[in-house]
Every structure is written in structure tokens, then in C-alpha cells.
């Protein structure tokens, strides 16, 4: 994605007409810019109009506002798919459809939104921080590029974003730093989310990583024809109790308390190493592929700007590519984190390496991509929508404030 620049303070107050005379522009005067800088309207000076004060403030924080808008939209649309992904990764179902049917039958649609509130509240902050770190890192790399004035050795790309290779390198490095920062902040939240998503399954069989379909003991031992009247009522009550969510999963706060009680204060960072590996590499691939596809499409069309279709194609592509490359890491992370509340004698894996080897030994390479179908199904539309909303919100804020979206192709 191209980061939009801000107009310098020195050229906001005056315009030069064809005779060379300097005149002050009227508030509603339109200034036509070059092919890259879009047409914009000069707003009143800050402080002269209370309405424009908030527009200028919104413009100055357009990255945050746009990322929050995209995060909320994507979370509401994509969370059920994320919930199914976690279930497919950590428990065995014959297919995605079977997983969805069984989950909805036992827990209803609301069950697929279990644990939504913390991600919904924090995704906005996390995504806005992620995009902010990403954009600021791109600027820092450009300003401190050692090859800004001299060609890089061996034809390596620099950070000036004038070529597709330079765009990809800059986005990859910036994305990696952004991902590492977010992983450190969001590990506890994702750990809690995984426990909430799997609470009923883990409660049903805490000693297994596979989803079980064992009948309730009372139903197994009851002779045929005896489940009548009181016997049926008792059996139904036992069935409801077996399917109930455990006490520690009644809320996100209760899950957090249970993790701290069993694992200590640092227990909320269980699996942090895998989290950093996944997010730093995944975010690097994510942003690099998005900006590479976007810049390539822009050059192929010969345009100075990009539209919703380009953003959808680039966003969908980066979502699919990033999941294909980092899914095994995400699988191991989810599997390891699902054990955080299991009794010590019920733990299956002592290390992530043991988990990886065991999955590969039992199921081969296909086992490392268990549950990827749901991720790929949601990846293209969800991530495409994410960038369409982000780019739209950013452009809309710029138009609302009467400020240029972009001053130069390299910014």
C-alpha cells in the first residue's frame, strides 16, 4: 500500500497565478495538482472553524482511524471462520462442513462468536498499532537508507520504493518489525481466545487433543427402553452438563484468572516464542505481498492511483500467500496453547518441536495443514475486504479534510 504524504506547511497558505502574483486562496478554491497528488480543497486555517478542527485531527491520525475501521469490519465478518479454524487445528473432524455443523448444533451460532469481545476491542488497537508501526518504519528506512545516494551493491534493492523490488523489501522489513511488536502485546489475548473457543471441547475430554463423540456414561450404560420418564430427564440433564462450558470459561476474565492460578503470572505468555515467529514472519509476508501485487498492478495499468478492485485483489492474494507459508507455525502454536489449562499428566507435548515432529510422523505434511481449508476460504474475501475498507477510509478522511492523499509515488 502506498503511504500518503502530508503537504508541507510552507505551501498551504498561498497560490501563484499565471501573472506571477501571489494571492491568498478562498476557502472553497480548488487547486489542481500533478498526476500523483490528487485534487484537494484548501480548508480554513486551524482554529477558525470548529468543524475543521476535528477534520484536521482526523486527517493527522488517518492511519489509526482507517485501521480501526478495517479491524472492526474484518473481525465481525471473519471471527466465525477463525473459531472453526482453531477447532479444526486442535481437534479432529472429518471435514470443515462437519465441524461447522457439529459446532452450530451443539452451541448455536453464538458458539462461533465465543471470545469475540476481547479481540473486537483489542483488534482495533492492535491493527492500528500494526499499521502505524509499519508506516513509520517505512519512513524511517527511507530516511536512513545507506544506499539513498549510492547504488546498493550487487544490484540489491534499496528502501526508496522506486522499484517493485524496493517496495517488497521495504514492506517486508517493516512488516516483520510490526509483527514482532504486535505479538508481544497480543499473545495473552490470543491465548485467552483459544481457550474460549475450545472450552466446551476441552471440558468434554481434557486428556485428548482430538474431538470426541463419546456418549455420556449414563446413556451408554442404560438398557434399551429404560430411558423413560425420570430416567430420560436424568440422562438429558447429564448430557447438558457434559456439554456445558466449564466454570473457568464463563468469561474472558475468568479464563485469565484460571491461567494465572494454574501457570502463574507469566502463564498468560504461554507460547510467546511461537507467537513472535508466526507474527513477525507472517506480517512480513503479508505486507510485502500486498504492496508487491498492488504496485505491480498499478504499473501494469499505467495509473498513478489504485482502486477498490486492485485493493481487493492485492489484499486477497496477500492473505492466501501468508497463510500458506506460515500455517504450520500457527497450527503448532494453537496446539501448544490449547494445553495451557490441561493437567500436567494430561499434556501431550512438552515442546513445540515435539509437537511438530509428532504431527508430521502421524499425518505427514498434510497434517501440518490440518484446518487450512477454512483459513483459505476466508483469507481472500476477508483480507481483500480489510484493505478495501482501509484504503477507502483513508481516502475518505483525506477528502473530508481537504488534504492530498499522496504527494509522491515513493511515499
How does this model look, in words?
- This protein is mainly α.
- The chain is built from twelve helices and four strands, in the order ββββαααααααααααα.
- The chain has one domain: Alpha/alpha barrel (Mitochondrial carrier fold), CATH 1.50.40.10.
- The strands form two sheets. Strands 1-2 form a two-stranded antiparallel sheet. The chain has a two-stranded antiparallel sheet with strand order 3-4.
- The longest helix has 41 residues.
Q: Which regions contain 5 or more consecutive residues with pLDDT less than 50? A: 1-48, 207-243, 407-411
Strand content: under 5%
Give the termini separation: 10 Å
* SSE topology string: EEEEHHHHHHHHHHHH
Kindly report the spatial arrangement of strands forming the biggest sheet. Answer: 1-2
CATH homologous superfamily identity: Mitochondrial carrier domain
CATH class: Mainly Alpha
Total number of beta strands: 4
Layout of secondary structure:
Elements: E1 15-16, E2 22-23, E3 30-31, E4 40-41, H1 50-60, H2 62-90, H3 96-111, H4 117-143, H5 164-204, H6 217-221, H7 230-243, H8 252-263, H9 272-301, H10 308-337, H11 352-367, H12 372-401
Antiparallel strand pairs: 1-2, 3-4
Structural features:
mainly alpha, two-stranded antiparallel ribbon, Mitochondrial carrier fold, 12 helices, disordered C terminus, 411 residues
Short description:
The chain has 411 residues and is mainly alpha-helical.
Amino acid at each position: 500500500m502506498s503511504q500518503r504524504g502530508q503537504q508541507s506547511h510552507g505551501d498551504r497558505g498561498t497560490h501563484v497565478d499565471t501573472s506571477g502574483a501571489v494571492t491568498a486562496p478562498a476557502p472553497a478554491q480548488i487547486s489542481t495538482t500533478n498526476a500523483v497528488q490528487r485534487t484537494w480543497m484548501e480548508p480554513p486555517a486551524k482554529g477558525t472553524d470548529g468543524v475543521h478542527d476535528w477534520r484536521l485531527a482526523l486527517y493527522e491520525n488517518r492511519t489509526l482511524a482507517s485501521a480501526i475501521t478495517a479491524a472492526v469490519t474484518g473481525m465481525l465478518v471473519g471471527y466465525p471462520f477463525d473459531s472453526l479454524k482453531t477447532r479444526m487445528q486442535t481437534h479432529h473432524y472429518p471435514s470443515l462442513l462437519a465441524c461447522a455443523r457439529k459446532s452450530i448444533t451443539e452451541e448455536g451460532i453464538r458458539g462461533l462468536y465465543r471470545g469475540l469481545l476481547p479481540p473486537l476491542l483489542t483488534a482495533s488497537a492492535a491493527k492500528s498499532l500494526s499499521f502505524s508501526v509499519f508506516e513509520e518504519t517505512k519512513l524511517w528506512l527511507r530516511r536512513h537508507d545507506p544506499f539513498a545516494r549510492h547504488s546498493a551493491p550487487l544490484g540489491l534493492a534499496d528502501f526508496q520504493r522506486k522499484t517493485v523490488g524496493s517496495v517488497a523489501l521495504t514492506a517486508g522489513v517493516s512488516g516483520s518489525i510490526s509483527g514482532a511488536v504486535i505479538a508481544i502485546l497480543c499473545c495473552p489475548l490470543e491465548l485467552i481466545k483459544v481457550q474460549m473457543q475450545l472450552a466446551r471441547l476441552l471440558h468434554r475430554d481434557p486428556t485428548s487433543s482430538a474431538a470426541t463423540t463419546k456418549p455420556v456414561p449414563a446413556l451408554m450404560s442404560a438398557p434399551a427402553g429404560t430411558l423413560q420418564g425420570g430416567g430420560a430427564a436424568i440422562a438429558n440433564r447429564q448430557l447438558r452438563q457434559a456439554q456445558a462450558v466449564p466454570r473457568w470459561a464463563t468469561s474472558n476474565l475468568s479464563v485469565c484468572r484460571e491461567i494465572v492460578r494454574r501457570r502463574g503470572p507469566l502463564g498468560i505468555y504461554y507460547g510467546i516464542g511461537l507467537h513472535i515467529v508466526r507474527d513477525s514472519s507472517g506480517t512480513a509476508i503479508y505486507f510485502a505481498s500486498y504492496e508487491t501485487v498492488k504496485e505491480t498492478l498499478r504499473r501494469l495499468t499505467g495509473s498513478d492511483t489504485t482502486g477498490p478492485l486492485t485493493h481487493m485483489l492485492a489484499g486477497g492474494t496477500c492473505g492466501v500467500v501468508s497463510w500458506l507459508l506460515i500455517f504450520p507455525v500457527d497450527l503448532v502454536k494453537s496446539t501448544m496453547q490449547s494445553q495451557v489449562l490441561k493437567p500436567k499428566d494430561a499434556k501431550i507435548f512438552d515442546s513445540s518441536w515435539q509437537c511438530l515432529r509428532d504431527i508430521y510422523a502421524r499425518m505427514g505434511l498434510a497434517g501440518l495443514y490440518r484446518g487450512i481449508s477454512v483459513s483459505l476460504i476466508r483469507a481472500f474475501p476477508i483480507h481483500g475486504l480489510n484493505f478495501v475498507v482501509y484504503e477507502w477510509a483513508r481516502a475518505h478522511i483525506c477528502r473530508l479534510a481537504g488534504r492530498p492523499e499522496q504527494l509522491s509515488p515513493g511515499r
